[in-house]
């Protein structure tokens, strides 16, 4: 069954992005068609805002973007909301991450992501070739690109507002040990964690996720949570999928995600699954 929603929220990685981290021109076109029919379309991603432009076709537009798993929301260049990790938490986590030799990227608002030069050797070591079989190609390519072009290697933390931490490890045992350490750290200082693969974990402000971001964006547009639809594929999408009135999982999503949604797409992210699904919605409303 396909519903006729008033607002649609789309995850990026594994959803509108294929495994080469690109949004197809077909997906752009169907989003344009739906918006022309009066349906609001939003992106709700774990990516920071500066990670979006390089993944979408020229002219790609949506009504709003929820980034960093709900930490910030934007309409064009306007910030609708921005939550920030405290400097105290940032410094404490970096100290712990150094002990565990875990790969990290810290995302300040309005400047390049940061990794401290002191940690560069073990961070780069985590993405040495060959790629481990269990690491997704999209995540691996993103880390390679970050190391090569996007991380600002600094002597010390710069900035005062931070949207999230991203952590990665090439082995599941390593990242699981780090997740356990983060859970212990939550007893000292409150924050939220989110995962989108078996090799990563992200840190945000306590009680912030994609669902809280959607709620704030709907309020800004004076829209109800009724007649909302979301499409996603991973654990960090669960709050969003549970919040909207109709939830859709990608065909490439793991089974535990498919079990909690109303419907699953017929095609994967590499087969333009979102395009084919949204095309049916467009046919209903045209």
UniProtKB/TrEMBL annotation:
Protein name from the UniProt record: HAD family hydrolase
UniProt GO molecular function: hydrolase activity
Keyword Transmembrane helix among UniProt keywords: no
Top-level taxon of the source organism: Bacteria
Pfam families, alphabetized: Hydrolase_3
Cross-referenced Gene3D superfamilies: 3.30.1240.10, HAD superfamily/HAD-like
Coiled-coil region: 168-195
Phylogenetic placement of the source organism: Bacteria, Bacillati, Bacillota, Bacilli, Bacillales
Source organism per UniProt: Halobacillus seohaensis
């Amino acid at each position: 069954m396909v519903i006729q929603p008033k607002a649609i929220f789309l995850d990026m990685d594994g959803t509108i992005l294929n495994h080469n981290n690109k949004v197809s021109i077909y997906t752009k076109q169907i989003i344009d068609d739906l918006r022309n029919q009066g349906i609001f379309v939003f992106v709700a991603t774990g990516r920071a805002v500066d990670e979006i432009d390089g993944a979408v076709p020229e002219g790609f537009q949506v009504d709003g973007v929820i980034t960093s798993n709900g930490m910030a929301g934007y309409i064009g260049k306007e910030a609708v909301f921005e939550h920030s990790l405290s400097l105290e938490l940032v410094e404490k986590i970096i100290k712990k991450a150094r002990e565990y030799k875990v790969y990290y990227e810290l995302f300040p608002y309005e400047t390049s992501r940061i990794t401290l030069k002191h940690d560069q050797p073990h961070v780069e070591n985590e993405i040495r070739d060959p790629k481990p079989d269990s690491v997704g190609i999209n995540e691996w390519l993103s880390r390679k690109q970050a190391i090569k072009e996007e991380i600002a290697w600094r002597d010390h933390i710069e900035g005062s507002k931070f949207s999230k931490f991203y952590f990665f490890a090439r082995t599941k045992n390593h990242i699981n040990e780090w997740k356990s350490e983060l859970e212990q750290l939550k007893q000292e200082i409150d924050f939220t964690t989110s995962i989108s693969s078996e090799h990563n974990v992200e840190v945000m402000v306590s009680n912030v996720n994609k669902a809280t971001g959607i709620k704030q964006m709907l309020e800004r547009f004076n829209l109800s949570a009724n007649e909302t639809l979301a499409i996603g594929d991973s654990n960090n999408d669960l709050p969003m999928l549970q919040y909207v009135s109709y939830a859709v999982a990608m065909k490439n999503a793991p089974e535990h995600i498919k079990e909690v949604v109303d419907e699953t797409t017929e095609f994967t992210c590499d087969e333009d699954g979102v395009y084919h699904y949204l095309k049916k919605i467009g046919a209903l409303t045209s």
